[in-house]
Known about the structure:
This protein is of the alpha+beta class. It has 17 helices and nine strands. It has helices at 54-57, 97-100, 104-107, 171-182, 193-200, 230-233, 239-262, 268-285, 292-309, 313-327, 338-349, 354-362, 364-378, 390-414, 419-446, 448-486, 492-522; strands spanning 3-13, 34-49, 61-66, 72-80, 83-89, 113-128, 134-147, 154-164, 186-187. An eight-stranded antiparallel β-barrel has the order 1-5-4-3-2-6-7-8. Strand 3 (61-66) and strand 4 form a beta hairpin. The longest helix has 39 residues, at 448-486.
Amino acid sequence: MADTKREIERKYEGPATEGDAGLPDLMGVAGVASVVDKGVAELDATYYDTVDQRLAAASLTLRRRTGGDDAGWHLKLPVSEGVRDEIHAPLSDDLPRSLTGLVRSRVRDGELVPLVRLRSARDIRHLQDDSGALLAEVSLDRVRAERLSGGEGTAEWTEIEVELADDGDPAFLDKVEKKLRKAGLARSASASKLAKALVETGAERTSSPSSPKSPKSPSSGKSPASSKSHASTKSPRTAGDHVMAYVVAQRDAIVELDPAVRRDLPDSVHSMRVATRRMRSTFRSFGKVLDRTVTDPIGEELKWLAGELGVDRDQEVLTEWLTGALDNLPRDLLAGPVRKRLRTWSNARRGGSRRRLVAVLDGRRYLDLLTALDALVAEPPFLKAAAGDPSEVIAKAVRKDFRKVSDLIGEALDRPTGTDRDLAMHDARKKAKRTRYAAEAAAPALGGPADDLVKAMKSLQSLLGDHQDSVMAREAVLGLGAQAYAAGENAFTYGVLYGREEQRAAAAEAALPEAWAAVGRKASV
Length: 525
């Protein structure tokens, strides 16, 4: 079983760490009452990666380390600058499956091999407050790096590492840094020991499936040699540039969220699902820019993935809503075992599980989808309009989506309350979401008008979504009431809930004309 720890640390180098120099005196750091010498630990770590360094390209590290008080396997996932999640698995001879699964979206079918061996003599000090509580661990590491794959180089260096104690205040690191800077040290130019070792031992990274070459620009017809994504290597100029920047951002989100989904982190499933929807909507909205004979099959696979991600999500959201609705009812309106029946219904309808979802992410279909996305990014299927002025091409596509929303809103308002209006409002909601995503993609090119449209569509989508949620809640409550009645239970409460959901839908319908008028006043793309 793997354990996770949030690691917040900084690395330093400079004159004070050269040769056999020791750690500077840190007793002057504000809040430090004592500096405890914890001795020297001998650490021996072997880092694993693919031959083309797919993990290193994504700033991930996977190692097997002996020595010290945390011997075992460690996978480090970047969170932000200086912050990583370290996932630990017990020491073993083989790569643990609990960790290799977390890097599968990067590694795909590649083989993980020993890349670099780092042996360090770690001189450790604990900075403690006046109660003896640990504030941070400071160590001076004398490191020897040896290349195991992709070269035969070696390197040696010394660095200082400051790691914040668990649940510590990150501001404390600023106080330590102030003291270290006075001692002549500066932040290390390398984000990690592995990154420094790769540079110092003379190996060059190559592009990988998880970090493909930038897509060809429709204006140049050439593909830059950089392994960084299109969105980060150059400023978008053409309509194709802008559309692909948005596509790349969604591809990257899917790949980066994969480990979080496997770890069942909050909002990770929803976020990945949104990324799939954004990309699929982009393909449909900008069919004059990207060839749909290429993107439509990928869009179908994205739809499949979104469906797999939503198996439990939709049921979970509906259950939470109904539970909250029960909580808001006065006690004298609660009749029969309503809560128990809701729990039973929810568990029975839950068609998936985390284990099932992980199996999907391990499956060939999902990995083939990631490969298809990489191929699309590397060689975008640009059409003639891709080379056009984004202020014209992209704006035209957004206006087309907006007109479709307008038509559907008109249909909804023309229909009487009932199933037909419910369906029309649901269709309008889907189109509003698509228009919002198109406006997001257009925002870097069109600026304020696109940003305003994003906000307007988000507000409209919220109103229409509230209405659709009431439709789904009424359907669920009707079924629950029928089950309760058949079981000889009092069905009164279900009728109350149904009535309240009808009121919620009516309120949304009544608010729609003014909400749409407000959208019209803001929409100027």
